[in-house]
């Protein structure tokens, strides 16, 4: 099935200039629609024909700087983080951004510090950056972005980031809400699932901290329990359940919760009698679990509201008002 | 929570040149590590200090062209398409590419034709393009990418794409395998779920075609049935099941299958007695459905193999051998 691609040398604007018999500057004026310079219609056609013939594509960066705009919205995120956490929201955001003429680009790079990350993102010259993990941003990082021409930074974060528009997204409130509910249900020995999968610790750690904060103000205790997203790991955890002696568990999200529900049932541990289980994300399938799963639903600003705010920020430098994330407990029979 | 960001003008290499008291060309030589030009250590330090002070970030495009390399691997995909179809695979691919020094970037833009798409991708000057939906590529589109300096194009596709390295990924074989299995189980009136969600038609249509191909060679019939990923839509479909009179269904994937399983049970339709159900993706939770769900597992080249092949292609222009996708039926009690 494999076939060696044509080894074509990269085409530059100099090649277009040579073929059209004009200066490189003229090529630039024509291809970037610069209004400040008059180019005759004949010359314009010659340049366009040459560019077409050579298959010349201007650089996004060069073009965005010259035209003063880019249509990229960069979201630093791995597929799994975006996917598991807020997949549908990001998906709808794509459509809403498209309505305003933007294209969403996910950047999966991982970096040793916020400024290195910002430098890498800045190289793509996006119009805006939307940071789902805004707590790993910093003022100096936002400054790098601004200096590179990024017109707006929206950060989902638990604290304000200097220079960025912060959308309140405090993961600790999710763990706190789940454990408040479990305590109100009379549970006192509460487990908090810590997924072993890559990229989830960023969300799991503050959720645990929120859980611990609530426990510290009550007579409940919180025990972190590691879990991989496999049958084996869930069976192993369920097998130790009586020894762990936990009567409530916040299972990170609905997928880990569903896996654990089944493993507990196999082990003869009754839900909610022996242990109350709470998930997060309120997935479509969670109401269909046996027993139906209590879950923390994350109310976010609608993708349409968010896209409108982002556009205001990029287009007019306005300071958009975007409400933060609101965790809401959806009580079902598992707790 | 919102705060207006500092309105910093974009910093250019001309600003760096002015502050360092050197020519723009010298700034370029220093920042791009061009070996062909000798620059004194003093000058080099002055340029680096000026760039640091101004927070200047070179363009990815400019840098990649000058240095002859970019570290971006661009994957045209929406979060939902990547997420639902091959989320874990893409996630692992991110890590494996990182091992070779590449960063995966997902580009969610949608375009009227393959060449427009290729032009937009080419503007980011990636080292390589990995097209999950390779059937929407074309030879001229690959040519646009090559001319823009993209060193390799890997396309998951059902047919060869001129100039690209095709990884066989024929969605029609998934539908064909599911329906072959249902026919072998004695089913004759077979439904094929067509998800209404955005972006899934690209995969659903060839799966339906594969199902129809098998039916045409047997006494079975295939009926497409629309389904949204909501309880309401599933309940509505289940409510019409006796009228539809279908004794087997390929439910697009395991999530739609799980939703339909529950709705059929609510409606008193027995699985597999009244209707056999087959999903796709063999998700971790699918073995835990009631009854456990038959599914088509998609064996792909491992992310490590794929990343190695991509690196060979980009780094040495080698013609990598990558095996295609192999659908495998995992038979459980739902069929």
TrEMBL record, chains A, B:
<dbReference type="Pfam" id="PF00356">
    <property type="entry name" value="LacI"/>
</dbReference>
<dbReference type="GO" id="GO:0000976">
    <property type="term" value="F:transcription cis-regulatory region binding"/>
</dbReference>
<dbReference type="InterPro" id="IPR000843">
    <property type="entry name" value="HTH_LacI"/>
</dbReference>
<keyword id="KW-0805">Transcription regulation</keyword>
<dbReference type="InterPro" id="IPR010982">
    <property type="entry name" value="Lambda_DNA-bd_dom_sf"/>
</dbReference>
<keyword id="KW-0804">Transcription</keyword>
<keyword id="KW-0238">DNA-binding</keyword>
<feature type="domain" description="HTH lacI-type">
    <location>
        <begin position="11"/>
        <end position="67"/>
    </location>
</feature>
<dbReference type="InterPro" id="IPR028082">
    <property type="entry name" value="Peripla_BP_I"/>
</dbReference>
<protein>
    <submittedName>
        <fullName>LacI family transcriptional regulator</fullName>
    </submittedName>
</protein>
<dbReference type="Pfam" id="PF13377">
    <property type="entry name" value="Peripla_BP_3"/>
</dbReference>
<dbReference type="GO" id="GO:0003700">
    <property type="term" value="F:DNA-binding transcription factor activity"/>
</dbReference>
<dbReference type="InterPro" id="IPR046335">
    <property type="entry name" value="LacI/GalR-like_sensor"/>
</dbReference>
